[in-house]
Each structure stands twice: as C-alpha cells, then as structure tokens.
Amino acid sequence: MGRALAGSSAANSHYGRHSGLSFFAQENYRRANHAQSQFRVRSVRTQRNHFCHAIQRVIMTAKDYIDHYKMIPHPEGGYYLECYRSEQSLDFPGFDGPRNYSTSILFLLEAGQTSSLHRIKSDEIWYHHDGGCLVITEIDEQGNHHVTLLGKDFSQGQQLQHVVKAGRWFGARPLNTAFVLVGCQVTPGFDFRDFELKNP
Questions:
Q1: Closest C-alpha among 83, 82, 134, 81 to residue 109
Q2: Which of 3, 38, 49, 139 is the most buried (most CB within 10 A)?
Q3: SS3 for 154-171, per residue?
Q4: 58: which DSSP letter?
C-alpha cells in the first residue's frame, strides 16, 4: 500500500496539472502521450525519407534533358529547344524586316562541346538552370576578352545570369562538368538571318 501511494505521489508530481487524476488514469495518460510522441517521431522520419527520395529523383543527366525536351543540334554546337516566341512583331531599327519582340530557348552543352564564337544583332540573356559551370567568353568592340562564369557556386565568382550585348563575338564551354543547361532569351527575337559564326 505504501509503495502504491508512493508511486501515485510520484506520478502526481510528474504530471503536474493532471495531479487530480487517479494513478491508473495518469498511467493511461502517460502511455497515450508516449504513443503520440512516437507517432510524431515516425512522421518526421517518414517526411525526411520522402524528402531524401525526392532529392534523389530530381538528379538529371544531359540525356534526360535532351530526350525529355526533344532537343536538336544547334549550328554553334550543343543542343537546343525553342520554348518561347512572342506572337507580336515589330520593325526594329537595324533589322531587315520585322522581328518578334522576344524569344527564348533551352540550350545544353555536354563535356567536350563548345558554343563556337558567333554574334547576333540582339542582346542575349543567359540563365543557369542545371549542371556545372559554364564559361562565357566575349570579345568587345575594342578586341578585349571578357570571361564570365555562369553557375551556382558564388564562392567561385559564378553568377546565375549574364547579358551578352548585341553585336559582340562570344562563345561558351562547360568547365569541369558533365553538362550545363541554360536558358537564352533574345530581344528583339532571334532569327537565323541575324546569326553569324566566326570563321576559324
């Protein structure tokens, strides 16, 4: 009897505001609370596992992108898909006819591939999407070379987007990576009549 009272007293002390409950009621409360705690732990573990599996599922390869988007070879090198061309067009100064307001492509380079030196008549914004670092090399109007690192490693001076000014010769290549996927937006819109590859 003394031990039962001692146990009841300890339980009352442990459960604080539930001290008005009988020992058996408090024991049931303790077990229910423990079960809820275990359920929360299992729930967190399940969510963590699902998150880890989701991370694993989104690891993509160059072939994944090329096959999914049905990308085709680009004359400058690599693969591309035009994913946007504005419906509106305009006669912009310096162009031989109307051009769409804007166009956008997905562009992919694999290791060993390069975007050969070329130039177009419009500004072109490059956006990093996936893969490693892309080295963009430009030659300005005075013949000076400018190098930009497109990527996500800010500690290495990389940046997520870069604008290549109209009329500049430029090219690109992956840097120590299996592939790089970027987006390229051109305004006024791209037309192969405005595209010029530099002779070797």
A1: 134
A2: 139
A3: HHHCCECEEEECCCCEEE
A4: T
pLDDT of 105 over the 60 cut: yes
CB neighbourhood size of 185 (10 A): 19
| Cα separation, 62 vs 167, whole angstroms | 30
Question: Is-contact 164 182, C-beta < 8 A?
Answer: no
- Round to whole Å and give the CA distance between 164 and 151: 16
Instruction: Please provide the DSSP assignment of 65-108 as one string.
Output: HHHHHT-EE-TTSSEEEEEEE-S-EE--TTSSS-EES-EEEEEE
Take residue 162 and report the two structure tokens written for it: 């870069």
Q: Which amino acid is at 48?
A: R
d(CA 33, CA 23): 15
- Angle (CA) 65-70-71 rounded to 5° is 75
Total-model pTM:
0.72
For the chain, what are the domain ranges? 2-57, 62-197
Sorted by sequence, the CB contacts under 8 Å of residue 8 that are 6+ apart come out as: 22, 23
Tell the residue number behind the tokens 């989104």, with chain if given.
Answer: 58
Q: Which residues pair with 197 in a beta bridge?
A: 118
Q: 62-197 belongs to which homologous superfamily?
A: Jelly Rolls (2.60.120.10)
